[in-house]
Amino acid sequence: MKLTNEQIRQYRAEGYLALQALISPERLAAHRAVFDELVERSRSLAESRGGFNLAPGEHGQPIPGRLHKIQGVCVVDERVLDLAREPEILDRVESLIGPNIDVFGTKFYPMLVRGATSTGWHQDNHYFGTNSDRVVSCAIYLEKTGVENGCLQVVPRSHRSGHLVEHEAGTGIYAHGAWTEVKEDQAVDLICSPGTVVLFSANLLHGARPNLSGRTSYRTAWHYIPGDLDLAMFPRGGYKDRHILRGA
Questions:
Q1: Contacts of 234 (CB under 8 A, 6+ apart)
Q2: Is the pLDDT of residue 112 over 80?
Q3: Is the CB of residue 109 less than 8 Å from the CB of residue 151?
Q4: CATH number (domain holding residue 125)
Q5: Which residue range forms the structural domain that includes residue 150?
Q6: Exposed/middle/buried for residue 192 (C-beta within 10 Å: 0-12, 13-18, 19+)
Q7: 190, containing H or E segment
Q8: Which DSSP helix (H) or strand (E) runs through 10?
Q9: Would the pLDDT of 171 be above 80?
Q10: Closest C-alpha to 138, from 7, 18, 5
Q11: What are the φ/ψ torsions at residue 107 (nearest 5 degrees)?
Q12: Residue range 189-224, pLDDT digits in tens
């Protein structure tokens, strides 16, 4: 099913669209089983390797068996591409960028324990060497996610200038990346039921709260782009975590 005209208008105007419970419970359970396997694989690791990034301890050392994220998760396990190419998602992405669709920069964040984090405030295009509005970022929530266990936060309409703000190296619980700052009173919390898909502009300011609960919040993050969009850092056919999903 394609996006409605109203949904497209909201995406263009606000910079994001939350599609609640888009993935069916049956399909969600199948995808969840793959991620459970990956988490189990990580428990035997003493250091980060092969796309598996362990959470840092107090002095920055990796905590054995404590998974922070899997970078390039569709390279680590090709079965995750089945989630990225779910027709319910691609049909709606097609409404925004056309029928030839690639995905790149695939990540999995399990948010396993109290205090787990994913990302601080940033714009995705800052890392891609572009400010193109043809990059559609996507977060998929496999579990119920709210304020207490690390929901996504966005600054509505922050994409509209096309301007990329300055990002600096993070500190504290966000020392693992380069982030920016926003006025917190401008932020909106996106409360997600299981199977929710959030599509948003790669120019939109967004981040995620830390997990302050005692439960997990599995989520993926990646970026859909037209097959003809030439990103120098992520060339089609030359970057292993760029995958053709639909069209030529």
A1: 104, 105, 128, 241, 242
A2: yes
A3: no
A4: 2.60.120.620
A5: 5-246
A6: buried
A7: strand 188-190
A8: helix 5-14
A9: no
A10: 18
A11: -140, 150
A12: 999 999 999 999 999 999 999 999 989 999 999 999
- CA-to-CA dists, residue 202 to 65, 163, 193, angstroms: 32, 11, 23
Contact 223, 103 (CB under 8 A): yes
Number of domains in the chain: 1
Question: Cβ(196)–Cβ(19) under 8 Å?
Answer: yes
Tokens of 244: 């053709």
CB 240, CB 160: distance < 8 Å:
no
* Under 8 Å between Cβ of 221 and 204: no
Strand 242-246 and strand 136-141: the pairing is unpaired
Residue 215: φ, ψ to 5° = -125, 165
pTM score over 0.85: yes
31: tokens are 């995808």
User: Token pair 């105007």 is at which residue?
Assistant: 13
- Residue identified by tokens 């796309």 is 51
Q: pLDDT tens across 46-96, in order?
A: 999 999 999 988 777 899 999 999 999 999 999 999 999 999 999 999 999
